[in-house]
Amino acid sequence: MRAVSFFRKYHKWLTLIVGVQAVLWTLSGVYMTVIPLDFIHGDHLVRPVESQKIDWNRVSVGPGRVSQNYPSAQSIELIMLAGGPVYRVKSANSQTLVDAASGGHISPVDEDLVRMLAVEHYAGEGVIEQVTLLEGNLPQEIQAADPPLWRVDFSGANEPTFYFDADTAEFLSRRHNFWRGFDFVWMLHIMDYEDRANVNNWLLRAAASLGLLAAFAGIGLLFFSFGRRRSSASGETG
Amino acid sequence: MAAMRWLHKWLGLIVGIQMTIWLLSGLMMSAFNMQTVSGADRVRGDNDLLPASAATLDAETAARSGPDARIVRLRTILGQSVYEIVGENGLSLVSAETGAPFDITSERAAEIAREDFSGSAPVTRVILREAPFLELRTHDGPVWRVDFDDGRETTLYVDGETGRILSRRNNVWRVFDVFWMLHTMDYAGRDNFNNPLIIIAGISALWLALTGFITLFSSFRLQDFDLISAMRRWRGRRIQCTLEAPDASPASQALAPGLSYFDALAARDIQLPSNCGGAGTCGLCVVRVEPDRPPTATERRLLPDSELRNGARLACQHRTRNDDRLELPEGVLGAKPLTGRVTETRFIAPFIKEITVKLNDRPARSPVSGQYVQVEIPEGAMESASFDIPEGWRARWFEHGLPARIEAPASQRRSYSMATAPHEDPKLLVLNVRAVPPASDKHSWGVGSSYIFSRKPGDEIVLHGPFGRFRPTERASELVLIGGGSGMAPLRSLIRHEYSQYGAGRPVTFFYGARTGADILYSEEFETLAKQRPEFRWVVALSDPGDDESWSGRKGLIHETAKRDLKVWDKDLLKAEFLLCGPPALVEASTKMLLGLNVPSEHIHVEDFGV
After folding, report:
1. I need a labelling partner for A9 at 20 to 30 A (CA). Which of B128, B304, B551, B555 fits?
2. Mean per-residue pLDDT for B423-449?
3. Rounded CA separation B67/B86 (Å)
């Protein structure tokens, strides 16, 4: 079979298989490249908040005592939270907040504190619409975190959301609709429809392999596609 | 749809390479195990608990070195409790036991890296660097680069300020990162995939994909999904088609069912001209088909109406069909022209010249009796003076107003049957060429005959062929030949073959019609043959004997003469086969006459290329 027929046949059949995915790849790729990544990350929604100086006068429980109370701790962090000093105690599979003045256990933090923190960090338009404590299954968009979390939804077409760790009051992440769109097209791009994270999946590998073969055949076709078109009829015979 | 294809093609030219690079780099990134790329597979993964005697020093004392501390973090480095203090002046580490500064020295950095690394490979080098740089693009500040000799050149980056592991790099990552660069088209920083280059390429590629996708709908026809035909093809089933071409004799060809003619012929190594490979865009794979095939929209777009009416179609647009007949363009079946030299020319009748050509080489396809060749008539003028018309016949020529020059406006071909049997000499061609006087004042003399009449011994001549299937079948027990004028040639060839050592020697009756006695070709030859072989009969009738007193034979039109004889035929007409060659009127009348005698049409063979 001549090369042009060969390329044509393979280009046609391979793109029949991966044509839809090729459209999805380029469509998702354009989304991801056209919208600046910092915007996707939601940098415009967050105001930088400087930590307060530690008020040593109110620290009456030393870190030594805390570490004795929490023998599995891997790190103990003294910070100011809502005007008072607190310890964030982190171990391999749990974390908690301890009042540095009383030594008392604070976790989980209450909604009022989260509302205050949210307002403090939020730089976008709109107001808090809803604050929800998430204890069980987490939504797809914050899968990697450990519950419990506080979810703070703001008003606005872009539907911004902040997530705080309910045990430590840490500001974990922010989401908005462009991020969600990005996450969706990323799923389409890497073809991992469950976790949206595993680029080593066999579906992607198979589709990319077929797509690559189709592209090679397409390149091959290019060599023939710019030749002369049909000429006028040749001289009659007989 | 044509616009979509056009766009797809040009976009392919513009971003086809980048599309391929994206697919290749994407595939490679997907193929590389991310655990290996990130170095996570060689992380020890122990989590150090704070020592029980953790902070002998209290936090305030520790923080005193930085009274404006905002974060004080008690953690473990290399088994020791350390305060990490974030204050006005940045970050500092102090020992939680002694309060002394805890600097990340090169020894400590190496130790931290060794503790993190799961293998036993030795550290080969520890150097201090200032981030950011290519392998550590998102960090800012001093870092220790700790290299391991682990077969993939793992490098751990230890933060010069906090002693934390910032990044794990290895050669797999380094290759991966090149693919990442190719994928993001950020050839400097590698991470910025919002750059204008990728945006332009990406949008072009999106159009490439979209136009390609839309084009798919017209690229497939229902037949592509005809699984029954696919199964038949797979099982080796073939259909029979007859292929014809001006430069080849008609031949039956076994073709795959359910494919387009273009693909089916390509599978038999018969390549039609094409730029698109059968996509229906270039319009080059022109063939002639049976007229019952309606042209497709593609054909109506690519071929002129006049050609469509002539049966021209695109081979890529029609499926193979059993018993179909397809005429291919010249040159496809791979025949080369024949060349030879004229060795002899002579007038054998007032308007008929016998010309003998010696071929330079034997034809690739051996000629068979009854076949014809096509003579290449080059463009140019012929002098009628060079025809060498015998004195006695000149008057008849000038009755028709023979001009001094006859012009061939373009090169063309004319078909002439061979008048001898090929076994006599396969390289020798004898043709009977009849001059064609103009049919009216508006016509000119035939250029083919003028060219051949002006040939002299030694002249070169170019031919194509042999072509044709003018011969009886083996089933015939008797042959009846009806001919006239230069239609003599193939009939003479068949007779010479029939009575040679290669022929069957069947009874032959040859009805030959001529105008006058002078127009009878090879009469001596056939009279002699009739005497030698009783099974050969030579019946001549003159249509215009005039006052020729010497003519004692039959008079009238030859088909009428034949009819009289055949009506009282003493043998079974159904076992005979009839071969007709001559002027169109003769062939037509004879065919009608034979059908009237209930001769089956498949027993009538006609050579009618317009003698």
Report:
1. B304
2. 84
3. 10
The CA distance from B342 to B347, in Å, is: 14
Sign of CA dihedral B182, B188, B192, B197: negative
Indicate if A114 and A192 belong to the same structural domain. Answer: no
Average pLDDT over residues A216-224: 90
Residue pLDDT, tens place only, B162-210: 999 999 999 999 999 999 999 999 999 999 999 999 999 999 999 999 9
Same domain, A59 and A152: yes
Residues A50 and A150 in one domain: yes
ipTM given for this complex: 0.90
pLDDT cut 70: percent of chain B above it: 95
What is the per-residue pLDDT across B512-522, written as a single tens digit (0 to 9) for each? Answer: 999 888 899 99
Query: Which has more pLDDT, A228 or A220?
Result: A220
Are A28 and A135 contained in the same domain?
A: no
Do you know the residue count of chain A? Answer: 238
How far is it between the farthest Cα atoms of chain A? Answer: 114
**Per residue in B239-296, pLDDT tens?**
888 888 876 778 888 898 888 898 888 887 787 777 677 778 777 788 988 877 889 8
Report residue A57: phi and psi, to 5°.
-65, -25
Full strand arrangement of the beta sheet holding B123-133: B123-133, B136-148, B155-159, B165-169
**Higher pLDDT pick, B48 / B159:** B159
Q: How many domains does chain A have?
A: 2
How does DSSP classify residue B32? S
Same domain, A208 and A145: no
Nearest CA in chain B to A64: B55
A26 and A99 fall within a common domain: no
What is the β-pairing status of strands B460-467 and B428-434?
unpaired
Give the number of other Cβ atoms within 10 Å of residue A100's Cβ.
Answer: 26
Give per-residue pLDDT as tens, A37-50.
Answer: 999 999 999 999 88
Domains of chain B: 2-34+188-218 (no CATH), 235-327 (3.10.20.30), 338-467 (2.40.30.10), 478-607 (3.40.50.80)
> What is the residue type of B36?
T
């791979």: which residue's tokens? B334
* pTM greater than the 0.90 cutoff: no
- pLDDT tens across A165-183, in order? 999 999 999 999 999 999 9
Q: Which of B19, B375, B379 to mutate to test the interface with A (most CBs of A within 10 A)?
A: B19
Size of interface A-B (CB pairs under 8 A): 238
Crossing angle between the packed helical segments A3-34 and B2-31, to the nearest 10 degrees: 70
Q: Do B73 and A76 touch (CB under 8 A)?
A: yes
Interchain proximity B246–A238, CB inside 8 Å: yes
Is the CB of B276 less than 8 angstroms away from the CB of A190? no
Between CA B286 and CA B313 the distance in angstroms is 6
Same domain, A113 and A193: no
β-sheet with B508-514: strand ranges across:
B554-555, B536-542, B508-514, B478-484, B576-581, B604-607
Strands annotated E in B418-487: 428-434, 460-467, 478-484
Residues B437 and B146: their CA atoms lie apart, in Å, by: 101
Q: B428 phi and psi, to 5 degrees?
A: -105, 125
- The full 3-state SS of B239-283, as one line of letters, equals EEEEEEECCEEEEEEEECCCCEHHHHHHHCCCCCCCCCCCCCCCC
At residue B222, the pLDDT reads: 72
Q: Is the per-residue pLDDT at B55 higher than 70?
A: no
CB B389 within 8 A of CB B347: yes
Range(s) of the domain holding residue A101: 43-175
Pairing of strands B352-359, B286-288: unpaired
How far apart (Å, rounded) are the C-alpha atoms in residues B610 and B439? 14
Indicate the residue type of B419. Answer: A
What lies within 8 Å, CB to CB, of B271 at 6+ separation is A2, B265, B332
Q: Is residue A13 part of a domain?
A: yes
